Amino acid sequence: MANKRVKITETIFRDAHQSLLATRMSTDDMLPIAEKINKVGYHSVEMWGGATFDSAMRYLNEDPWERLRKLKEKMPDTKLQMLLRGQNLVGYRHYPDDAVREFVRLAIKNGIDIIRIFDALNDVRNMKVAIEATKEFGGHVQAAVVYTESPVHDINHYIETAKKLQEMGADSICIKDMAGLMKPYQATELFTALKKAVDLPIQYHSHYTSGLAAMTYLKAVEAGVDVIDTALSTLALGTSQPATETMVATFAGTEYDTGLDLELITEINRYFKDIRAKLKENMVSKDVDPEVLIYQIPGGMLSNMRSQMQKMNMLERLEETLHEVPRVRKDLGYPPLVTPMSQMVGTQAVFNVATGKRYQIVSKEIKDYLKGLYGKAPGEIDPEFRASILGKEADQVIDHRPADDLEPIVEKATEELKAKGYYRSEEDVLSYIMFPSVAEEFFQKRA
User: Fold this and answer.
1) How far apart are CA 397 and CA 227, in angstroms?
2) What H or E segment, with its residue span, contains residue 60?
3) Kind and range of the H or E element at 274?
4) pLDDT tens for residues 211-242?
5) What is the pTM of this model?
6) How far is CA 198 from the centre of its chain?
């Protein structure tokens, strides 16, 4: 019975408040309850990475590295987990290899145990350096495969990608379903096949956006998934994860029993009701939106799009823009709509509808993507379409790993920071490399 017990990764300190509270939970909100969370016996607590890194400096005037150290101190018995965007680290573009290695080294040194590494295009070349560095510095590599639906994303795609990641040294595999698109019986099929194909623990991460995730978790666990991501109910559902309490209760008394104490978890959840009340002006709706199943637009992308169109007095054309998203995605070879692709595709769809002529305005990011600077597109891109956007630059398209063209940056950034008088630690250098203006403003306030 013991080997079927499903484990739980709690997302309250990262994805849950990123999804529902615009990443506004501060370290001071987290610390009073951290010791109790440490006692639950979670598989891990996801508490770093994703958008929490720049939000800490940008909106909370906080050092993200400091948060990591403080939570590690309060939660010595629980594995701390982070989300890393492969060669993009926690930023929105590719960084040189020396920055990737240094970031991973310092993340582990400051208290991260498990690094979930993904690439927006499932281009494993963009995960290679982060995987190697995590192994070298003693972290657990959780290599993630981004789940989406398109003519090129079939079961074979997921299995082949997972096998490559196992060969690259992954310690576990995560299927990352950022829009909550997987349906329960698809989970049975995918995870049954995946458990046969790779000999590693498998974790499933989803969002409740479409209303399917709790049912899909049930089928995923029955098909052999080892760990699921959940959020305490105060910050669960909507665009967040299924509720921890619900999933613990679902498996209680079965061969999958989590072994976690529902009363302790319920008591911890009450604490977050006060936090949610305090931050209520940032709270987004916990409604279910099955439209995501048609447009495949994750919750965060949808709210960005709405506010973009509101600013342009175009809100009445939202429906039209939602229909344009899948068309843009098809033109671009079906990239999964996860950061940074979701922002890029969404913005392009808005431009196409606003101007009335498709691709009359094209963002620099889309041009870079078409040049291969983000990696290999999952599907084929029509050469004529590419040429129509890139013009003379169409002969500059690369097919090698984008970061191969980037010059080392750490030493140069260290000198710059020292010259400006802001240098206090090697961690500061990484914050500065990823978010130069945000970090500099934070260092000024700190000084």
Assistant:
1) 40
2) helix 52-60
3) helix 262-278
4) 999 999 999 999 999 999 999 999 999 999 99
5) 0.96
6) 23
